[in-house]
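Support reply, case 0932

Customer input (verbatim):
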Amino acid sequence: MSPTDEATGVRVAVGSTNPVKVAATELALSRGDALSATTVEAVAVDSGVADQPRGVAETVEGAVTRARRALGETRQALGETRRALDEAAAGRGDDLGVGIEGGVAEREGVDGLYLVMWAAVTDGDRVGR
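Our regenerated output:
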């Protein structure tokens, strides 16, 4: 990636240092030409939920919290002044936070627990799940 790409590309903060979650994010982002100038950074954050979330709601909450906290950490590290300059130059806010959370949940009619995985993406204003 050239310095120009890094200055105008999308910066994505993944709310985990887990290499599987980081690789999954990089793979997902590599599927679109519009995100070819993407920089992905692993950021250690607390999910705000139990180490093993139980239920869909808690797992979703963990993913959303990771995405928001990762983006917040990245923006704080970059400094809001640089971010404002970058946004003005690019014509858009281009930082994204990604959170990926795994949990277990019960399912009606099925004995035991099953695995659930949720991902969330935020630009600071909106959250997609």
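We compared this against your earlier run and they match. Two observations from our side: Confidence is low (pLDDT under 50) at residues 1-6. The longest helix spans residues 56-78. Please reopen the case if you see a mismatch on your end.
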